[in-house]
Amino acid sequence: MSALAARVRSITASIAFAVGLPALILVVWALVARKPDEAVGAEKFYPDPLTVGRAFADSWIGPAFADEVLPSLYRLGIGIVASIVLGVTAGTVIGLLPWLRDLTEPVLEFFRAVPPPALIPIVMLLLGITDTMKIAVIVSGAVWPILLNTIDGVRGTDSVMTETAASFRITWWQRLWFVVLPAASPRIFTGTRQGLSVALILMVISEMFASSSGLGYRIVYFQRNFLIAESWSGIVLLGLTGVLLAVVFGVVERRVLRWYHGMREVERG
C-alpha cells in the first residue's frame, strides 16, 4: 500500500508541476491584460486569455483546421521525416569514412552557417510556390543538427566494440546495425530534438512568403488586418504544436533509448 501511495503522490506531483506553471502564466497574463494603459491601449493589443480563447475557437476550430492547420502539419511531418532520413543516412556514411569527413567538413560548415530563410527566394525560383518548396525550406534547416550529431555519434563509437565485432567476423551490415547505430543513437536523438524546433520555425517562415494557406499565412493575414486576438491565437496554436511534437518525441525516445536511460540510471545509482 505504501508503494501505491508513493506512486500516487509522484503522479500527483508531476501533474501539479505540469499544470501549475501554465496556470500561473495565464493568471499573470490576465492581470497584465486588464491593467489600464491609455497610452498603449492594452485592452486592444494585449487581449486577455478569454478573448484569445474565443478567437482561437473561431479561427482554428472547424473548417479552418482542415484548410489551414492540416496542410501545415502535413508539410511539417514530411519535412521532419525527410530531414531524419537524409541526415542519418548521410551522417552515417560521412562518420564511417574519415577521408570523406575531412573532405566534406568545410562544405558542411559553410552551408550550416547559411540562414535557411535567405534561401527561400532561390528555392522559390527553382521549385515555384508549391508544397515542395515549403518542404525543401524545412529540410534545408532541420537536416543540419541531425546530420552533424549523427557524424559525431558514429565517429565516437567505441573502437573496442567495433574491433571485437570484427574479430568475431560479424558482417559489416551487422556491425552497422547492431553496434554503430545503437552507439550513435543518443546523439542522433539529440540532433532530432533540435531539428524539430528548427522545422517548426521554418514551416511558419516558408508559409509567410507568397502563400495562400497555412499557419504562417493566416498569422500574417491577421497581423496585417489588425486582428490582434486572432494573431495571438495563432501563436498559441504554434506553441501547442511544439508541445505536441515534444510529447510524441519524448515517448519515442524513451522507448527506443530505454537501454541508454537504464544504463544512465545504473551509473547514477
Automatic annotation (TrEMBL):
Record's keyword terms, sorted: Cell membrane, Membrane, Transmembrane, Transmembrane helix, Transport
The ABC transmembrane type-1 domain, residue ranges: 69-253
PROSITE patterns given in the database record: ABC_TM1
Gene3D superfamilies, sorted: MetI-like
Organism superkingdom: Bacteria
Primary localisation category: membrane
Compartments, as annotated in UniProt: Cell membrane
Membrane topology: Multi-pass membrane protein
Listed InterPro entries: MetI-like, MetI-like_sf
Pfam families: BPD_transp_1
Transmembrane segments: 12-32, 73-97, 118-146, 196-220, 232-252
UniProt family annotation: Belongs to the binding-protein-dependent transport system permease family.
Name of the featured protein: ABC transporter permease
Protein source organism: Luedemannella flava
